[in-house]
Design brief:
- By secondary structure, the protein is mostly helical.
- It has one domain (2-161).
- It is built from 5 helices and no strands.
- The two termini are 23 Å apart.
- 14% of the residues are buried.
Length: 164
Amino acid sequence: MNRYFQRRRTVAGLLAVVAGIAAIAGAGLASAVPPLHGPPGHSATADPAINDAHFNKMLTQLLPDGTPKQRAQLKLIANSVHTDLNAFHAQFRTAHQRAYVLVLQPSIDRAGLEALRVEQVQQADRASRRIVQGLADAAEVLTPSQRVRLAAYLKAVHHKGAGL
C-alpha cells in the first residue's frame, strides 16, 4: 500500500511540475513583454524576437541542464500552446461582449445568457484540455531527474512552496 501512495505522490508531483512550467511560461511571456493593449501582462507583444529572447531566458533558468534538442522541443510545444490559447482568449473576449449586449437589453434574455454560459463552459474545457496536452507533451521531453529538479526549483520560487 505504501508503494501505491508513493507512486501517486510522484505522479501528482510530476503533474504539478509540468503545470508549474506552463504557468511560469505563460505568466512570463504575458508580463515580460510590452502589451499591445490593456494593462501590462494581459497580451503578448507582436515582436517574435522579444518573445523568443524571453523564452530562451526562462528555459536557461528552469532547465540549465537541458539539451539543445530538449529546448527546441519545449519551444515548439510552448509556441503551439500559446498560439492555441491566444485563439481561445479572443473567443472569450467576444463572449464577454455578447454578455454585455444580453444584459443591457430592456428585457433580460435568460435563455440567451444560459446558452452563452454553456458555450463558455465548453470553451473553457477545450482550453483546459489543450493546456493539459501541452503539459504532457512537455513532461515527455524532460527526463525524470530533470522533472524532480524542476519540481524542487518551482517549489522554492512558487509562493514559497505553497501548492507543490
